[in-house]
Design brief:
Length: 393
């Protein structure tokens, strides 16, 4: 019996505004994670290990930051003569051309391509979460259920539930759905992985578009998922393992801290499910002079002569003698000069933290330093601060 034909659509076009300075010059899925990875590596690795070779990536914001990393899909075995990786930029020339204004709007714009492909199941995923999942397994369960949509779900903290689409479930049937509700009925959230039956879903989108207009389609959770739920055609598929949305600066920092524990929630090098990325050529990391590393991730090409504790050190980072980095995430090419202290901070690509600077500190909010800034010698940047301050001209 032939396997169902599965198409994965990765929605990678969002602005990622909640990540603030980290997405000023890069797409959200291109944001680095755990030293050597990018956020989009997780759904693409899931596709590889799910044996799904037809993967489309819808791009919009800062597309060049993703194009180089995707490398025609080779790191995930998606560089195929037939099928494989295809990027979908904004386009003009048809009635569906233009700038996407939400995830449902984006799906509507690609509807003709999806119909022509003829998939049995369409898996639509975002690219701002850390998790492992067999998409084919979910797609097969969806096809057996007879549903129009299957929503992969996870449990979230009660004080965080209003950030997500929240479902009420009876067995595997979704009986209620609310998109980012002010007062969530449950803590069972969709984790932005959906399996759709393509034809009925796209037909429904056409009907919604005729009622609401193109911009009125908004996100999948705005009108499409509630309508499918109301008609009794939505099913839930609980995700049993680890899942974290890293779409805010605080969640991005906290998730890194989880990967510094003695037993991290995901083994990124697990032989049965390794997370793959576009590898760069870097020399071995070097700990020099009196350099000290404690409970940290140390990437290739780094040079540490100072004190690093509880931190993630990305490729090409230099921590000079006499510098201290604690509970922080340093992205590629950062230099922390002698006498500087960086505590509880996320420091973006190529930042030069000058001698004697103090960044962040204490148990306060996470400090964030924007890409390629030069921090003058002796500067003090408070806990929770943004540097440069986006509110200043």
């Amino acid at each position: 019996m032939a396997l169902p034909r599965v198409l994965v659509l990765v929605l990678a076009g969002g602005a990622g505004g909640r990540l603030q300075l980290l997405t000023e010059t890069r797409a959200k899925p291109a944001v680095p994670f755990a030293g050597v990875y990018r956020l989009i590596d997780f759904p693409l690795s899931n596709c590889e290990h799910s044996h799904i070779a037809d993967v489309w990536v819808s791009i919009q914001q800062h597309p060049t930051s993703l194009a180089e990393h995707l490398a025609n899909g080779r790191p995930w075995d998606l560089d195929r003569t037939t099928g494989g990786l295809m990027t979908l930029p904004p386009f003009q020339g048809t009635e569906r051309g233009g700038w996407s204004t939400g995830t449902a709007n984006s799906l509507w714009r690609q509807a003709d391509l999806v119909r022509a492909f003829g998939a049995d199941a369409l898996v639509v995923v975002s690219a701002d979460a850390i998790y492992e999942l067999d998409y084919r397994e979910v797609a097969e369960a969806h096809l057996e259920s007879g549903a129009e949509v299957t929503m992969v779900t996870t449990e979230v903290a009660p004080d965080d539930a209003s950030r997500y689409g929240i479902v009420e479930v009876d067995g595997d049937r979704v009986t209620g759905y609310a998109y980012k509700p002010d007062e969530p009925a449950t803590t069972t959230a969709t984790n932005e992985v959906f399996v759709f039956s393509p034809e009925p879903t796209l037909d429904r989108l056409e009907q919604l578009r005729s009622e609401l207009g193109e911009e009125g389609l908004e996100d999948l959770g705005s009108h499409l998922l509630p309508a499918q739920t109301q008609d009794g055609l939505a099913r839930a598929y609980p995700l049993g393992g680890f899942w974290r949305d890293v779409g805010t600066v605080d969640s991005y920092w906290r998730t890194h801290q989880e990967f510094l524990t003695p037993e991290p929630p995901i083994d990124l090098d697990a032989p049965e499910w390794p997370i793959h990325t576009r590898g760069g050529r870097r020399s071995a990391a070097r700990v020099l002079d009196d350099g000290r590393i404690e409970n940290s991730l140390l990437s290739g090409g780094t040079r540490v002569s100072g004190d690093v504790r509880g931190s993630v050190i990305s490729p090409g980072v230099v921590v000079e003698a006499g510098a201290t980095v604690v509970d922080s995430v340093l992205l590629p090419g950062v230099r922390v000069r002698s006498g500087a202290t960086v505590t509880r901070a996320v420091v973006d690509d190529g930042v030069d933290v000058g001698r004697g600077c103090t960044v962040g500190g204490g148990d306060g909010d996470v400090a964030l330093l924007g890409r390629r800034v030069q921090v003058p010698e002796g500067t003090e940047i408070a806990a929770g601060a943004r540097y440069p301050d986006p509110d200043e001209d």
